[in-house]
Structures are given as structure tokens and as C-alpha cells.
Amino acid sequence: MPELPEVETTRRGIDPFVAKKKIAHVTIRERRFRWPIPNDFEKKVTGHTVRSISRRAKYLLFELDHGYFMIHLGMSGSLRIVEQKTALQKHDHVDFQLPNKLCLRFNDPRRFGSVLWLGKNPFEHALLNKLGPEPFDEQFNGEHLFKASRNKKVPVKNFIMDNHIVVGAGNIYANEALFMSGIRPGKAAGRLTKKEYGLLAKNIIDVLSASIEMGGTTLKDFVGGDGKPGYFQQTLRVYGRDKLPCQKCKTPIKLIRLGQRSTFYCPECQH
Predict the structure, then answer these.
(1) Does the annotation count 3 as an active-site position?
(2) Which of 108, 115, 119 is nearest to 59 (CA)?
(3) pLDDT (tens digit per residue) in 251-267
(4) Which of these is catalytic: 2, 135, 155, 185?
(5) Among the four residues 1, 161, 162, 254, which has the most C-beta atoms within 10 Å?
(6) Residue where a domain stops, chosen among 69, 96, 124
């Protein structure tokens, strides 16, 4: 699933081609996504200029002069800039025609993504109005995590993956940040100290920043907006390394399940 760094990489990849450009035409070949594309979507968008493209959590927000529309990549979606005459691939469901014979093309094999009109107040939408802070916001820090975690018995990995607490700490990045912090993922969130949360918050920011700079994590079905895969996978310390030696102490990495998600940790380095 594309996570926050992959979505941010996509935003940066498509921005030079889409921002400040007029959408000449919208072609929708499939409307049945996680939430169906509204029947009047084309009418609302066609002929309007994209003022800016921003990101909130894993949602891409396209600002027009009269409101916003949103694209979510779901489990396997991708956005590519292609020439309008480029032959269609399987699952190329939506095209936004742009100037210079270019096209923003949305491909989604599993159709868990979405293309929705949000109107003038996007952050009041039900999908956005209860999200926690962005990891790069000033309000996200160890103090925020510490206060939110009091009396919580849920494993700390599940806690930091809760989008009501902070957005963007997906499974891969939660595993990595906890390893960097020396914290065992199954430890109850309420048992961590303020100092531990200070370190964890810093490492969440660091691991996400590093992944964004490297172009996201290479997953089998993620491709950035420029058509190039990400390369952060090469630097993963624990994720996907079950039974391989820890890069710090050589102890074999363990794999467990937490919240039905694969969870990797070093039993020696993480406590």
C-alpha cells in the first residue's frame, strides 16, 4: 500500500506538470472505487485550473478556483504523467487531460482508491476532519505522544499507526522508527516514558523524511509520479528481515503479528 512518503513522492512528481494548469477534459472509464466517483465530477472539474496540489495524510488535494477534489491511491493505485496518446494499460481508469498534450492518469488495479469532489472546505470532510497531526507539524512531538498514550494498553506500534494520533506512521515506518528508538513494538503505549516518546517522535520524523528524500519505499506495485520506483527499501533496518542478523548486534530479527500486521524487531536491541 502506498504510504505517506510514497504519496508525497507522487505529489512532488506530478506537481510541475499539473499545478497552475487547466484541466481540459476528464475521461472516466470506471466509477466503481471504494467510494464511487460522483456522476457530476467531470462537470465540476473540466475547464478549471489547478491552483495547487497539497497532501493531507495519504490524500492528495487538488485546489481549483471553486473547491477541491481529492485522490486517494488506496492499496495499489498510482498517478502518472503521460502523453495523451499513450496506449492504455489495464486498470487505467481516469485521465485528466492537461496542456501540451499531457495527461494525468490514475491506475488502480484493486479499485480501493478514490476520486472525490470535496467542495470549498475539504478539511471538514468526514475523511479528513478527525485526522491527527502531520509528523512534520510543530504540534507533533514527544509531548503529544506522551499525553495521548496515558493509560493506553494497546501496543505502542498500533498506537503510533493510529491516524487519530499521528498520520503517516504506516507499518514499514513504524517498525523502523521503533527499532531506531530501541523500543519493542508490543510494549503497552501507556508504559513508555516522556523521554522515550521524545526519541520515538524524532525517529518517526527522521525515517519518513529519509524515505521521502529517497523517493518512497519500493513496493511491488508502487511507482512514483515520474514513473520511477522509490529506493528507500535498500536502507530498511528491520522490516522484511525475519531471521536475518540485526545490523547492530547480529541477533536474528523476529517476526510477530500485531493488529494483523507483520511486525519485525530485534529482541536484543529493543526493550
Answers:
(1) yes
(2) 115
(3) 999 999 999 999 999 99
(4) 2
(5) 161
(6) 124
